[in-house]
Every structure is written in structure tokens, then in C-alpha cells.
């Protein structure tokens, strides 16, 4: 078990999934990835989460982001449960579910928190960049279903800030003003972001750059 932090390389693994065996780094290719765990198959909150992610799949695709889920259950359970998800949520999982019944990946990613449960994974979310580095690590308790619009929002921010010398303010959404990073002098800011607004010397806003 290792603690995985932002900036670390995402541990590579091979695993059986509902879409065949995957080798994680190879499967990610040159794009972005989201790896998320849920405690157990055939549980209510997880059912809603997987249905929601299936509905949002086109949004992940638009962002060149592959999604893969994990729980410590077997392929045959994942497959049976998928039809329940389709029946109750309107969409079956359209992304791979890792069958981690030997807890190999869960251990690698520190997804079992023994003071919460010895046997079930917590609700972890990892966003992995094209450089295979961890860009975000979130942990939710079993009783709280995640907000996957927030995950998309973070991906938007990560993809924007990887390209431009900006950061995104609290609650930022696509199309809203962004913050010019401290590494950019006022002279450089004038060139890159003409007409930028200075609220404080350390707080400078500009419209979201395009391209
Ligand atoms: C659920 O997904 O509903 C759930 C899973 C494990 C513990 C509690 C709730």
C-alpha cells in the first residue's frame, strides 16, 4: 500500500474488466483518464453513480478522457449488475468495470481504508493526465454519492491550465474569467492577456483563453 499524491506517477497494472483485460497505461494511450472505485456491486448509491457516469460518457469523450470503474467484485457480478443499472438508471455502464476481487488494484491505489471498512473500497477518484501523472485524488465515504459534473469541471480546468498560464477561481465553469498565475509578470500578461484586470497585484483576471 502506498499513498498516492498529486504529481506521482499513476501506478500501472493489468486487470480483468467487463471489456476484457486492460493494461492501464497502455489503455490510457495519450489521453486523460479517470479511475474511480465504488464499495460493492448491487448497492444502491453505486448503482446511481455508475448510471450517471454512463450518461455522462459523451462528455468524457469530448474531453479525450477514458473512464474506468473498480470494485472488489467478480466479472460475473459486474455483468449481472450492469443490467440492473440499465433497468433502474436508463443506461448500462458503457465503460470498463475492473473486477478487483483479489484487491490488487485497490491496494495499489490505497482504496481500502480499514477504519472505514476492511473489505470494501472507499469512493476514490483519480484523474490521470496524458503524462500518466496523478492530477487529482478525491476520497468520498460510502454514504455519499459523488458529483460527476464536478469531475468534468476539474478536467476542464486541468486541460485549460495545462495549456495556458492561468488558474481557475472557486466554482469556475467553462467560459468564465480565469486568474493569471503569479509566474506571469505584468509585462508578459499585457502581451498574453491584453486588457487584463488587476484587483490586487496578486489577483489578476482575464477572459478564458481559447485555443
Ligand atoms: C451504496 O453504494 O449504496 C453503498 C455501498 C456501501 C456502503 C453503503 C452504501
Structural notes for this entry:
With about 210 residues, the chain is of the alpha+beta class. The protein folds into two domains: about 15-145, 3-Layer(aba) Sandwich (Glutaredoxin), CATH 3.40.30; about 165-205, 2-Layer Sandwich (Antioxidant, Horf6, Chain A, domain 2). About 30% of the residues lie in helices and about 25% in strands. It has six helices and eleven strands. It has helices at about 25-30, 45-60, 75-90, 105-110, 150-165, 185-190, and strands at about 15, 20-25, 30-35, 65-70, 95-100, 125-130, 135-140, 165, 180, 195-200, 205. The strands form three sheets. A five-stranded mixed β-sheet has the order 5-4-3-6-7, covered by helices on one side. Strands 8-9-11-10 form a four-stranded antiparallel β-sheet, with helices on one face. The N and C termini lie far apart (about 40 Å). The mean pLDDT is about 95. The structure holds benzoic acid. Benzoic acid (BEZ) binds near residues 43 and 44.
Amino acid at each position: 500500500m502506498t499513498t498516492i499524491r498529486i504529481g506521482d506517477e499513476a501506478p500501472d497494472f493489468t486487470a480483468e474488466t467487463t471489456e476484457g483485460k486492460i493494461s492501464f497505461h497502455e489503455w490510457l494511450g495519450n489521453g486523460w483518464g479517470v479511475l474511480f472505485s465504488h464499495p460493492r456491486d448491487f448497492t444502491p448509491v453505486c448503482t446511481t453513480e455508475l448510471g450517471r457516469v454512463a450518461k455522462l460518457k459523451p462528455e468524457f469523450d469530448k474531453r479525450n478522457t477514458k473512464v474506468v470503474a473498480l470494485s472488489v467484485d467478480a466479472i460475473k457480478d459486474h455483468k449481472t449488475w450492469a443490467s440492473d443499472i440499465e433497468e433502474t438508471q436508463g443506461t448500462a455502464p458503457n465503460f470498463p468495470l475492473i473486477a478487483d476481487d483479489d484487491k490488487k488494484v485497490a491496494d495499489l491505489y490505497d482504496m481500502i481504508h480499514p477504519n472505514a471498512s476492511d473489505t470494501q473500497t472507499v469512493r476514490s477518484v483519480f484523474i490521470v493526465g496524458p503524462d500518466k501523472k496523478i492530477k487529482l485524488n478525491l476520497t468520498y465515504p460510502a454514504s455519499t454519492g459523488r458529483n460527476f459534473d464536478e469531475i468534468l469541471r476539474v478536467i476542464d480546468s486541468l486541460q485549460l491550465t495545462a495549456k495556458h498560464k492561468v488558474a481557475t477561481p472557486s466554482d469556475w465553469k467553462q467560459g468564465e474569467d480565469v486568474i493569471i498565475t503569479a509566474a506571469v509578470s505584468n509585462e508578459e500578461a499585457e502581451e498574453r492577456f491584453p486588457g487584463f484586470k488587476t484587483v490586487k497585484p496578486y489577483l489578476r483576471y482575464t477572459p478564458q483563453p481559447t485555443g
